[in-house]
Amino acid sequence: MSHSLTAAPRATAGPRPANGSPAVSRPVRWAAHAAALTLLPSGLWRIAVAFGMPSGFAEGNPLHKSNFPGPTSLYLIALSVFAECLGLLTLGLVQPWGERVPRWVPWLGGRRIPTLAAAVPALLGAAAVTAIAFAAACGGWEGQMAAPDAPKGALAWLMTVCYAPLLAWGPLLAVVTVAYCRRRRGDRIR
User: Fold this and answer.
1) How many CB atoms lie within 10 A of CB 81?
2) Rounded to an integer, what distance in angstroms lies between the CA atom of residue 153 and that of residue 131?
3) Which positions ≥6 away from 149 have C-beta within 8 Å?
4) What pTM, to 2 d.p., does this model score?
């Protein structure tokens, strides 16, 4: 009997969704969700400060509690929303709307999204975020927190704990982007 007839069939990436692309693996899907969630703690910290939570920054610092709520509150809230929107774009790398523009979008609905149009910005973003987080982890954060007007004690720890998940954002985004490129490898690159 031939070896090819007795060999077990090769495992595939999973069932193909309706759009014809291979299914996204569970670990990659989790990585995409985790990437989006890494921004949530720092965003919640900024929003809490915007609404008047003491941040521990000394008087004269723009983040001192006497400035909130106030005009700077809008900046902190907008920054948090913008950052979270960027994080949520990671989900497009594991969802159908990351491969085809949803039908309800005027003029573009149903069109295929070129692989590189999603992958290049995602990889550049992953590299930039990883470099920034690495620089912060290698002394930049410690230097900033050693400044005389920086938070001390429990408020410094709270801020650090809220910003620490950002260390994982770049690497998670890179993993999800590479998986996106591999999954769409069969698509024509435009």
Assistant:
1) 13
2) 27
3) 57, 58, 60, 61, 64
4) 0.80
Q: How would residue 165 be classed by pLDDT, with cut points 50, 70 and 90?
A: very high
Residue type for 127, please?
A
Does 10 have pLDDT greater than 70? no
| AA letter at 45 | W
Q: What's the pLDDT score for residue 11?
A: 40
Q: Report how far residue 154's alpha carbon sits from residue 121's, in angstroms, rounded to the nearest whole number.
A: 37
Preceding peptide of 69 cis, ω within 30°: yes
**Token output for 167:** 């260390």
